[in-house]
Amino acid sequence: MTRPDGRQNDELRPISFKPGIAPHATGSVLVSFGNTRVICAATIQEDVPRWMKYQKVGGGWLTAEYNMLPYSTHDRKQRDISAGKLDGRSSEIQRLIGRSMRAVVDLKALGPRTIWLDCDVLQADGGTRTASVTGGCVAIAIALNQLIARGKIKSFPMKKLIAGISSGIYQDTPILDLNYPEDKDASVDFNIVMTEDLDFVELQGSGEESTFSSEEMTAMLDLARKGIGEITELQKQAIKDADEMSLGDLEDLASCFKRN
After folding, report:
1. Torsions phi, psi of 143, nearest 5?
2. Position 163 pLDDT exceeds 60
3. Distance CA 30, CA 120 (A)
4. Domains of the chain
Protein backbone atom coordinates (compact mmCIF):
# COMPACT_ATOMS: atom_id res chain seq x y z
CA MET A 1 0.00 0.00 0.00
CA THR A 2 1.36 3.42 -1.01
CA ARG A 3 0.12 6.52 0.78
CA PRO A 4 -0.97 9.49 -1.39
CA ASP A 5 2.01 11.61 -0.29
CA GLY A 6 4.50 8.72 -0.21
CA ARG A 7 4.99 8.63 3.58
CA GLN A 8 5.70 5.49 5.55
CA ASN A 9 2.72 4.15 7.52
CA ASP A 10 4.19 5.39 10.83
CA GLU A 11 5.51 8.69 9.49
CA LEU A 12 4.23 12.11 10.51
CA ARG A 13 3.77 14.93 8.06
CA PRO A 14 6.37 17.74 8.34
CA ILE A 15 5.50 19.68 11.50
CA SER A 16 6.52 23.26 12.28
CA PHE A 17 5.71 25.96 14.85
CA LYS A 18 6.05 29.68 14.11
CA PRO A 19 5.70 31.69 17.35
CA GLY A 20 4.54 35.29 17.64
CA ILE A 21 2.14 35.04 14.70
CA ALA A 22 -0.51 37.09 16.58
CA PRO A 23 1.44 39.82 18.41
CA HIS A 24 -1.53 41.13 20.41
CA ALA A 25 -2.14 37.73 22.01
CA THR A 26 -0.22 36.80 25.15
CA GLY A 27 1.16 33.74 23.33
CA SER A 28 0.63 32.54 19.78
CA VAL A 29 1.92 30.10 17.20
CA LEU A 30 1.21 29.06 13.62
CA VAL A 31 1.28 25.26 13.67
CA SER A 32 1.62 23.28 10.46
CA PHE A 33 1.04 19.57 9.92
CA GLY A 34 1.90 19.29 6.24
CA ASN A 35 -0.69 21.42 4.44
CA THR A 36 -2.88 21.80 7.52
CA ARG A 37 -2.17 25.16 9.12
CA VAL A 38 -3.79 26.60 12.25
CA ILE A 39 -3.19 29.85 14.14
CA CYS A 40 -3.39 29.16 17.88
CA ALA A 41 -3.50 32.27 20.08
CA ALA A 42 -3.74 32.36 23.87
CA THR A 43 -5.00 35.58 25.45
CA ILE A 44 -4.96 35.94 29.23
CA GLN A 45 -7.51 38.20 30.91
CA GLU A 46 -7.25 39.32 34.53
CA ASP A 47 -10.74 38.13 35.35
CA VAL A 48 -12.83 34.95 35.65
CA PRO A 49 -16.29 34.06 34.33
CA ARG A 50 -19.30 35.32 36.27
CA TRP A 51 -20.37 31.80 37.23
CA MET A 52 -17.06 31.29 39.07
CA LYS A 53 -17.61 34.44 41.09
CA TYR A 54 -21.19 33.50 41.97
CA GLN A 55 -20.22 29.96 42.97
CA LYS A 56 -17.07 31.22 44.72
CA VAL A 57 -14.84 28.85 42.75
CA GLY A 58 -11.16 29.55 43.36
CA GLY A 59 -8.44 29.75 40.75
CA GLY A 60 -8.80 30.56 37.08
CA TRP A 61 -10.45 29.25 33.94
CA LEU A 62 -9.47 28.11 30.47
CA THR A 63 -11.72 27.94 27.44
CA ALA A 64 -11.24 27.45 23.71
CA GLU A 65 -12.83 28.57 20.47
CA TYR A 66 -12.33 26.87 17.09
CA ASN A 67 -13.08 28.27 13.68
CA MET A 68 -12.41 27.26 10.09
CA LEU A 69 -11.87 30.35 7.98
CA PRO A 70 -13.96 30.51 4.78
CA TYR A 71 -10.93 30.02 2.52
CA SER A 72 -9.46 27.12 4.53
CA THR A 73 -11.17 24.50 2.34
CA HIS A 74 -11.35 23.96 -1.41
CA ASP A 75 -14.95 25.18 -1.52
CA ARG A 76 -15.60 28.33 0.49
CA LYS A 77 -16.95 27.51 3.93
CA GLN A 78 -19.76 29.73 5.11
CA ARG A 79 -19.03 31.60 8.32
CA ASP A 80 -20.97 30.39 11.34
CA ILE A 81 -22.28 33.90 11.92
CA SER A 82 -24.06 33.69 8.55
CA ALA A 83 -26.14 30.82 9.90
CA GLY A 84 -26.71 32.60 13.20
CA LYS A 85 -25.14 29.83 15.30
CA LEU A 86 -21.99 27.76 15.73
CA ASP A 87 -22.16 24.57 13.70
CA GLY A 88 -22.18 21.25 15.55
CA ARG A 89 -18.74 20.16 14.37
CA SER A 90 -17.03 23.40 15.47
CA SER A 91 -18.80 23.28 18.84
CA GLU A 92 -17.71 19.68 19.44
CA ILE A 93 -14.09 20.42 18.46
CA GLN A 94 -13.71 23.49 20.65
CA ARG A 95 -15.07 21.55 23.62
CA LEU A 96 -12.45 18.88 22.92
CA ILE A 97 -9.68 21.50 22.83
CA GLY A 98 -10.85 23.13 26.07
CA ARG A 99 -11.17 19.80 27.92
CA SER A 100 -7.73 18.74 26.74
CA MET A 101 -6.05 21.92 27.93
CA ARG A 102 -7.79 21.94 31.31
CA ALA A 103 -6.48 18.42 31.88
CA VAL A 104 -2.89 19.70 32.00
CA VAL A 105 -3.18 23.26 33.35
CA ASP A 106 -3.34 23.83 37.11
CA LEU A 107 -6.19 26.34 37.25
CA LYS A 108 -5.61 27.01 40.97
CA ALA A 109 -2.01 28.02 40.28
CA LEU A 110 -3.18 30.23 37.40
CA GLY A 111 -4.95 32.52 39.84
CA PRO A 112 -8.09 34.55 39.08
CA ARG A 113 -7.47 34.74 35.35
CA THR A 114 -9.03 33.37 32.18
CA ILE A 115 -7.06 31.88 29.30
CA TRP A 116 -8.87 32.25 25.99
CA LEU A 117 -7.46 29.91 23.37
CA ASP A 118 -8.49 30.78 19.81
CA CYS A 119 -7.76 28.23 17.09
CA ASP A 120 -8.35 29.49 13.55
CA VAL A 121 -7.81 27.10 10.65
CA LEU A 122 -6.05 28.80 7.73
CA GLN A 123 -5.77 25.69 5.59
CA ALA A 124 -7.44 22.32 6.15
CA ASP A 125 -5.87 19.10 4.89
CA GLY A 126 -6.96 16.69 7.61
CA GLY A 127 -6.29 16.69 11.35
CA THR A 128 -7.33 20.25 12.17
CA ARG A 129 -8.60 19.36 15.65
CA THR A 130 -5.42 17.51 16.63
CA ALA A 131 -3.27 20.29 15.17
CA SER A 132 -5.30 22.78 17.25
CA VAL A 133 -4.64 20.82 20.45
CA THR A 134 -0.94 20.53 19.61
CA GLY A 135 -0.49 24.18 18.67
CA GLY A 136 -2.77 25.34 21.47
CA CYS A 137 -0.50 23.71 24.03
CA VAL A 138 2.49 25.62 22.67
CA ALA A 139 0.58 28.92 22.58
CA ILE A 140 -0.56 28.51 26.19
CA ALA A 141 2.95 27.56 27.36
CA ILE A 142 4.34 30.71 25.70
CA ALA A 143 1.62 32.80 27.34
CA LEU A 144 2.31 31.32 30.79
CA ASN A 145 6.02 32.04 30.39
CA GLN A 146 5.05 35.64 29.66
CA LEU A 147 3.10 35.77 32.94
CA ILE A 148 6.15 34.51 34.81
CA ALA A 149 8.41 37.02 33.04
CA ARG A 150 6.05 39.83 34.08
CA GLY A 151 6.05 38.65 37.69
CA LYS A 152 2.34 37.84 37.77
CA ILE A 153 2.81 34.18 38.70
CA LYS A 154 5.76 32.44 40.32
CA SER A 155 5.53 28.91 38.96
CA PHE A 156 4.62 27.35 35.61
CA PRO A 157 0.97 26.17 35.86
CA MET A 158 1.15 23.66 33.01
CA LYS A 159 1.69 20.24 34.54
CA LYS A 160 2.54 18.42 31.31
CA LEU A 161 2.65 19.09 27.60
CA ILE A 162 -0.21 17.71 25.56
CA ALA A 163 -0.60 16.89 21.88
CA GLY A 164 -3.04 15.33 19.48
CA ILE A 165 -2.65 13.08 16.46
CA SER A 166 -4.84 11.01 14.18
CA SER A 167 -4.45 7.39 13.22
CA GLY A 168 -6.69 5.18 11.15
CA ILE A 169 -7.22 2.24 8.84
CA TYR A 170 -6.63 3.14 5.20
CA GLN A 171 -6.79 0.49 2.51
CA ASP A 172 -6.81 -2.17 5.26
CA THR A 173 -3.59 -0.77 6.76
CA PRO A 174 -3.07 1.13 10.07
CA ILE A 175 -1.49 4.54 9.36
CA LEU A 176 -0.46 7.63 11.33
CA ASP A 177 -1.41 11.28 10.81
CA LEU A 178 -4.06 11.13 8.09
CA ASN A 179 -4.20 13.88 5.49
CA TYR A 180 -7.47 14.78 3.79
CA PRO A 181 -7.46 12.12 1.01
CA GLU A 182 -6.70 9.43 3.60
CA ASP A 183 -9.23 10.77 6.09
CA LYS A 184 -11.92 10.89 3.40
CA ASP A 185 -11.42 7.25 2.39
CA ALA A 186 -10.41 5.72 5.75
CA SER A 187 -12.51 2.84 7.04
CA VAL A 188 -11.58 3.74 10.64
CA ASP A 189 -10.59 7.15 11.99
CA PHE A 190 -9.15 7.87 15.45
CA ASN A 191 -8.28 11.23 17.02
CA ILE A 192 -6.07 10.75 20.05
CA VAL A 193 -4.92 13.27 22.67
CA MET A 194 -2.08 12.31 25.02
CA THR A 195 0.34 13.93 27.44
CA GLU A 196 4.10 13.95 26.98
CA ASP A 197 4.18 10.95 29.37
CA LEU A 198 1.93 9.11 26.88
CA ASP A 199 -1.07 9.09 29.20
CA PHE A 200 -4.40 9.29 27.40
CA VAL A 201 -6.53 12.41 27.71
CA GLU A 202 -9.17 11.67 25.08
CA LEU A 203 -9.93 9.09 22.41
CA GLN A 204 -12.35 9.70 19.56
CA GLY A 205 -12.65 6.74 17.22
CA SER A 206 -15.22 5.21 14.93
CA GLY A 207 -15.65 2.94 11.98
CA GLU A 208 -16.77 4.75 8.85
CA GLU A 209 -19.46 2.30 7.74
CA SER A 210 -17.07 -0.39 8.92
CA THR A 211 -15.89 -2.27 12.00
CA PHE A 212 -12.43 -2.78 13.46
CA SER A 213 -10.78 -5.44 15.58
CA SER A 214 -8.99 -5.12 18.90
CA GLU A 215 -5.73 -5.86 17.06
CA GLU A 216 -6.35 -2.96 14.67
CA MET A 217 -7.20 -0.67 17.57
CA THR A 218 -3.98 -1.65 19.35
CA ALA A 219 -2.02 -0.95 16.16
CA MET A 220 -3.59 2.51 15.83
CA LEU A 221 -2.87 3.35 19.48
CA ASP A 222 0.73 2.20 19.11
CA LEU A 223 1.13 4.48 16.08
CA ALA A 224 -0.34 7.37 18.07
CA ARG A 225 2.10 6.82 20.94
CA LYS A 226 5.01 6.95 18.52
CA GLY A 227 3.66 10.12 16.91
CA ILE A 228 2.93 11.90 20.21
CA GLY A 229 6.43 11.12 21.45
CA GLU A 230 7.93 12.79 18.39
CA ILE A 231 5.54 15.75 18.50
CA THR A 232 6.16 16.62 22.16
CA GLU A 233 9.90 16.88 21.48
CA LEU A 234 9.11 19.41 18.74
CA GLN A 235 6.80 21.28 21.13
CA LYS A 236 9.53 21.54 23.77
CA GLN A 237 11.93 23.04 21.24
CA ALA A 238 9.30 25.49 19.97
CA ILE A 239 8.53 26.70 23.50
CA LYS A 240 12.24 27.05 24.25
CA ASP A 241 12.85 29.00 21.05
CA ALA A 242 9.92 31.34 21.78
CA ASP A 243 11.16 31.92 25.33
CA GLU A 244 14.65 32.74 24.09
CA MET A 245 13.19 35.06 21.47
CA SER A 246 11.25 36.90 24.17
CA LEU A 247 14.39 37.27 26.27
CA GLY A 248 16.18 38.65 23.24
CA ASP A 249 13.43 41.23 22.71
CA LEU A 250 13.73 42.33 26.34
CA GLU A 251 17.50 42.65 26.03
CA ASP A 252 17.13 44.74 22.87
CA LEU A 253 14.66 47.02 24.68
CA ALA A 254 17.04 47.38 27.64
CA SER A 255 19.85 48.29 25.25
CA CYS A 256 17.70 51.02 23.71
CA PHE A 257 17.06 52.55 27.16
CA LYS A 258 20.79 52.47 27.94
CA ARG A 259 21.67 54.26 24.69
CA ASN A 260 19.05 56.92 25.34
Report:
1. -65, -40
2. yes
3. 10
4. 15-259 (3.30.230.70)
